[in-house]
Model the fold of this input.
Amino acid sequence: MKVVALAGGVGGAKMVDGLAMILPPEDLSVVVNTGDDFVHYGLKICPDLDTICYTLAGIANPKTGWGRDEETWFVAEELEKLGSEMWFKLGDRDLATHLERTRRLNRGDSLSKITRAFCRKWDIKQDVFPMCDEPIPTKVLTEEGELSFQEYFVHRQFKPVVKGFRFVGIDQARPSEGIIEMIENSELVIICPSNPWVSIGPIISLAGIRESLRKVPVVGVSPIVGGKAVKGPAAKMFKELGFSPSSVSVAKLYKDFLNGFAIDIVDKEDETSIKNMGIETLVTQTVMRNREDRRILAKEVIDYFVRL
Ligand code: FO1
Done:
């Protein structure tokens, strides 16, 4: 069955990894957030695309979830000797991706075309799409002013208090070629447990995406468990924006297109509130500690949907 996954960074990559273990590769496509992308050392860096692709290729750093496995850091060491500020760690193998992507972008290739070419080279059989071929950098509005996403997330370790977000250029932007049709021809769309504000938010804010999601079955997996984000600033953002950090708050953000929602056992008491929104609810273990957990969760979500 044709499944489309909407995904951001590390949390999304784990869900996509689980789906890739149980679905034939031609039945799984992934639409990836590009709001985290930025230019650093003159190189175009696409963290979420790389996290998803490295994970699907089995070459991702298993400890951090981002960057490459079996990485070396000679360039970073030499840069530090030269007095360069390496707050955003770029490993030697990872640098090859940024150098080649930048070279191809500069010769006029689209990000979609480059992603397809890299997937072939990394022997990834699933279709992976950037959400958009134009840059839509996420700006984080904080009490200290507006910060670029990586400045907020990595350099400032998501400490600044968030007041809002801006997806620069989103109103003029169009989803990458073929994404709307792919969603509308799918049998199921899965909203991965990525940050609803800055990973899923940009994707569903693109013209036509919400409308297309309303036409097909959509099942989400909560990125908030027990009032906390599994990883990253999602719960802190909910609180700072005046919402309770809960699976109910996540469901409310998606409720105009969500048909089903998987929440963790610890949030069982949220089941009734979510059902009262007209969203079917699956209560199961959603925390993925290892690859077996990823496979089991993916299988439960698919089987659950088939029963829906
Ligand atoms: N996240 C960090 O917390 N520290 C880093 O030094 C860092 C480097 C990095 C390099 C390449 C890449 O693809 C991702 C990297 N990330 C790093 C993660 C990045 O901040 C992503 O935006 C997050 O995964 C959130 O999506």
Q: What stands out?
A: The chain has two domains: 3-136+170-307, 138-165. DSSP finds 13 helices and 14 strands in the chain.
